[in-house]
Amino acid sequence: MDWNVYLSGEIHTDWREKIKEGTEKLGLPIIYTSAVTDHDSSDAAGDHLGKEDNNFWRDHKSSKINSIRTKTLIEKCDVAVVRFGDKFKQWNAAFDAGCCAALGKPYITLHDEEIIHPLKEVDAAALAWAKTPDQVVETLQYVINA
Fold first, then answer.
1. Domain that holds residue 8
2. Residue 57, SS3 per DSSP
3. Can you give the CATH number for the domain in which 95 is found?
4. Sheet hosting strand 107-110, strand order edge to edge
């Protein structure tokens, strides 16, 4: 069986690549999916529906287009990894974690100790908290091969 792992969260570091490389080295049968990780493309997702003079409506249209992808991929995943960085507020990642919780999808949070307090509710619903991509890889290896 191939596992479908959805990678959610911050887009400014290489955490996704580290997880993929680690699981590939172990030969784990994983198919990865993710939200759009190119910031400009994500912001422009709804531009084809017409120009907006007000940024609220541009963001509104683009977020709805992006949610078609996100909602579908989260519903189809076996497990999600939700990464929170320390430089930006990842409201989208918190929303994805909430969707996982509501759908009964298991998820692993990935973040540093410095942001434990603001993520206490998100972590409370997670089935694991990892501090490094290597810990995520080890968790996936155990879950898949145990």
1. 3-145
2. helix
3. 3.40.50.450
4. 30-34, 3-9, 79-83, 107-110, 128-130
